[in-house]
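This is your field. Have a critical look at both lines of this record:
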Amino acid sequence: MAPYASDDSTTAGEVDEQRSGRRKAARYVVPVTVMGVAAATIGLVPALADSGDPDLPKITAQQLIEKIAKSDVQQLSGTVKISTDLGLPDLGGLESSLLSGAASQGEGGSSADPTAKLTELASGTHTLRVAADGPDRQKLSLLENAAEYSIIHNGKDVWAYDSKSNEVHHGTAAESGKESGKENGRDQQPPATPKDFAEEALKAADDTTSVTVDGTAQVAGRDAYKLLIKPKQSGSTVGAITVAVDAETGTPLKFTLTPAGGGSAVVDAGFTQVDFAEPAASTFDFTPPKGAKVTEEKASEERAFEKKAFEEKASEKKAFGKAEAREHAPKSLPKSDEDLGKGLDGMKTIGEGWNSIATFDTGGEGVPSGKDAGELGGFMDSLGDKVTGKFGSGTVFSTRLVNALITDDGKVYVGLVTKDALVKAADAGK
């Protein structure tokens, strides 16, 4: 063990001074989709085990955070291994179908559409090759069995190629989901590198967070400091987050999130090989292979027009059969997606820090359960746990990280907290 340690602890207040504009990184989803969508907001894979324990100059947590913030690595290439173990219920492959199926049902039906393809990072173990040369040229390749999926951003062009189906998806940087975020109505893609994960974790730092330096490590042949981020409060499902930070460049090399309940990491993502030299210009060249099906991404104006037309048609259908549909609607589900939408609009957050809980009212009657709900009720019972309290009764859907409670009267509580914490929040809300 190298003679290295640091007792220095940086509170959220100090961290905030160094990195203004941090927001809490709490991303919540409707509980009944916890087993699928929650994973997509976290997506990762285990890197090779750390080796060595380099003797590096002492550094405080605040200095290390500053080092990450000042890191301006524009050029790199390497291999990243990502592993995710959220402890999702076994749906016989249904969750994977739901996540990836959007690709064939989305715009143009292209299996190469990155909107759905990268959700595969939400579970299992994956190997990625990454390369970057400034803000206008990046490449990410997902290596699969005898196949490869790549996204190439070169100037204004964004290409996505699926070698398995020999399909190509083409858009522009202004239109791509990764570049424009939610401007075109799409969610951002899941994080794919240790830096992505580290930035999200640091956004969550506040007065409820302990941030310390926890020694050193060697990752992908590079000397690194280990930044340890832990909730100060009890009741969170998050045990600790460790970020290995390159001692020379300040680039996060590995990210590990362990649950409070113990066991293997929920998320483990790290470089197994990294090079900070300029990648060859040819790395970012792409020409659709001969015979490949090429799908052009629609312009935002065209998508907006189609969306409006679809909504108008859907509204007409609802108006025509509204009374009959309500009469035959399952008793324990929201009577319309409009009810659910109103609930999301009224979402609020209770608690603070890692114990924050998002809550809203679906406008429905909770989750189908018991014999009266038939096969659907039995299926939902198998996925969740029935709970009771001052609030009445409800169902908790759990993963190793995200838990969600839906009460029988349609109220929803979601957070990175324990089942008991959700019940307590529901009781306080009565």
